[in-house]
Amino acid sequence: MFKRKKSKEPKIKKPRFQAFRDAYKVTRSVKPWIGTALIATFVIVLAIGVSLGFVFNRPIYGGFVTVPLAALATMFFFTRVAGSAAYANIEGQMGAGASVLMAIRKGWTTTPAVAVNRQQDMVHRSVGRAGIVLTGEGGFAVRQMLQDEKRKAERFAPGVPIIEIFVGDGEGQVPLRKLQKRLKKLPKKLSAHQMREVRARLKAVGGMSMPIPKGPMPKGIKIR
């Protein structure tokens, strides 16, 4: 007897424009002029291409070639504006730093809110090839919280480099929009095996449950 193969149910794919739609909604809530600016960018680039086509007596060919260039220029402009709008949308919210850190999917694992006080100051712990990064959000009390978490990390993962980062716009602090870049630029000190071992050791320490700002997170704002 031959067994019948079970028919696999077709997977429902999400629309490709969903990421663009979500990013556009967030951007428009922060920058209401984005729709007009996108149309203007497309029209200006297209007009330049058509004008050059008239110069060479080939206006139709100039317009045909310029359409994809105009679309590309419009999308490039949108990604730049959407990136700053996404940060502005979550800036000042509880857990904004954790949301940005957790958006780094390659090479880093972040445990949000390993320490939180009544003033909603908090510390997040990230583990990567650079070692352990403790990121503090809040006021003056977060410095002591960072020191406490540093001692805890040293106890569970002795000898592993520990970097402390303060999120903010003051002196010696890292702005929210530059937080991802800061982590990615840190020199690699651990091998892949050592990094996995550190993650396993710190997994038992855990963190605390906390709300994370909703909405698309800036991760290069890549839109297909």
Describe this structure in words.
This protein is of the alpha+beta class. The chain folds into two domains: 74 residues, no CATH class; 108 residues, no CATH class. The protein contains seven helices and four strands. It has a four-stranded mixed beta sheet, sandwiched between helices. Helix 2 runs antiparallel to helix 3. Keywords: Membrane, Transmembrane, Transmembrane helix. Pfam families: DUF4191.
What keyword list fits this structure?
single chain; 224 residues; alpha+beta; 2 domains; 7 helices; disordered C terminus
Topology readout:
Elements (H helix, E strand, L loop, with lengths): L16 H14 L3 H22 L3 H32 L5 H7 L5 E9 L5 E7 L2 E7 L3 H16 L5 E5 L12 H7 L6 H12 L21
Parallel strand pairs: 3-4
Antiparallel strand pairs: 1-2, 2-3
